């Protein structure tokens, strides 16, 4: 069995499970950004394509790998894969649904606490010998506890559920919005109350994004949405950068339409110094807290993800349907 990997070779080797199918596979590694032509040449006989969650898998590549029967994202995201082209050829496209939910939930809460407590400014000021001055200022201005916040979750999939579970321990008042409203039983289980999106924007002290990138969600956090938020509110994004209009968020922070943001994901990646959200005026620069898109990349997440990937490979090789198929293929077509 031949496997083509688009991603970091060291990472794939580190987290590869000790299973016969993995040990016997003939694996070719290519870094993200490798041209389609080179991928086609190196992987022309590949039956399996494993890809970093942000790696592009084009229609051309799919059409020129004649033996391909499975494309598997290493993460939860799969928006860079042409799933329709794969479906037309009867090729499974799978992701690792839910594998990073707990890890991203932790990062979400870290960012919430970080913006409320101004951790970066506090750290810098202590290092600069301004500990007492910073403390005195905080006592006058006040520090908001997470428990005192109404928190709105946009989307209510695996990560949002794990976030809600953790936030309940902080005694937060929790609201959510999703395409389909949950049953009252499920809402009660997760201690959440449904609000329409406009209501959620206006009512909550922290808005946290948990939707996938689609044609509908791309740019949904725009000028109109941000203007509906409280001027004291924070935006948290551990989903995907494409969901937020960078220029609109920049303007909202500069103008004071919202208080700030905590961002694990910013479009595009890799993020450069000229990104409008990095390039903020000095007087508001500390109102945005960044993390380098590490929410879902804990060691435990990768061990779970790679175990699932190789389980799915084994299933496909045994003519069984893998789990978490995202492109609707019911059974691969035999060539």
Short structural summary:
This protein is an alpha/beta fold and 335 residues long. It is built from 14 helices and twelve strands.
Describe the structure.
It is a single chain. This protein has 2 domains: 2-99 and 298-317, 3-Layer(aba) Sandwich (Rossmann fold); 101-290, Rossmann fold. It has a 7-stranded parallel beta sheet with strand order 8-7-6-9-10-11-12, sandwiched between helices. The protein has a 5-stranded parallel beta sheet with strand order 2-1-3-4-5. The chain has 335 residues and is α/β, with parallel strands linked by helices. It is elongated. Strand 10 (234-237), helix 13 and strand 11 form a beta-alpha-beta unit. The model has no long low-confidence stretch (mean pLDDT 96). It has helices at 9-15, 20-24, 36-42, 59-63, 83-88, 101-117, 119-127, 131-141, 158-169, 184-190, 197-203, 223-228, 246-255, 299-317; strands at residues 2-6, 26-30, 48-51, 70-73, 92-94, 150-154, 173-177, 192-194, 206-209, 234-237, 260-263, 288-290.
């Amino acid at each position: 069995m031949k496997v083509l990997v688009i991603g970091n070779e060291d990472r794939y080797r580190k987290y590869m499970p000790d299973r016969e199918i993995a040990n016997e596979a003939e694996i070719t590694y290519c870094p993200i950004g490798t041209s389609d032509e080179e991928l086609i040449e190196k992987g022309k006989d590949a039956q399996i394509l494993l890809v970093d969650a942000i790696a592009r898998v084009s229609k051309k590549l799919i059409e020129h790998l004649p033996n391909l029967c499975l494309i598997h994202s290493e993460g939860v995201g799969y928006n860079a894969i042409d799933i329709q082209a794969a479906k037309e050829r009867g090729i499974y496209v799978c992701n690792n649904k839910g594998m990073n939910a707990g890890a991203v939930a932790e990062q979400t809460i870290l960012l919430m606490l970080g913006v409320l407590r101004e951790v970066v400014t506090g750290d810098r000021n202590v290092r600069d010998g301004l500990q007492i001055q910073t403390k005195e200022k905080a006592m006058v201005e006040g520090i908001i506890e997470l428990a005192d916040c109404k928190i709105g979750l946009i989307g209510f999939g695996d990560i949002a559920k794990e976030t809600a579970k953790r936030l309940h321990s902080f005694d937060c008042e929790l609201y959510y919005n999703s395409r389909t409203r949950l049953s009252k039983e499920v809402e009660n289980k997760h201690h959440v109350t449904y609000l329409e999106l406009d209501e959620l924007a206006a009512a909550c002290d922290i808005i946290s994004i948990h939707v996938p990138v689609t044609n509908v969600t791309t740019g949904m956090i725009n000028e109109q949405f941000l203007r509906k938020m409280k001027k004291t509110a924070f935006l948290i994004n551990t989903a995907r950068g494409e969901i937020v209009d960078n220029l609109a968020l920049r303007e909202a922070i500069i103008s004071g339409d919202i208080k700030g943001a905590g961002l694990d994901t910013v479009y595009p990646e890799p993020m450069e110094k000229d990104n409008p959200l990095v390039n903020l005026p000095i007087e508001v620069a500390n109102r945005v807290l960044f993390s380098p898109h590490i929410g879902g990349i804990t060691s435990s997440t990768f061990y779970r993800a790679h175990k699932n990937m190789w389980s799915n490979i084994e299933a496909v090789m045994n003519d069984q349907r893998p789990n978490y198929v995202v492109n609707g293929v019911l059974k691969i077509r035999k060539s």
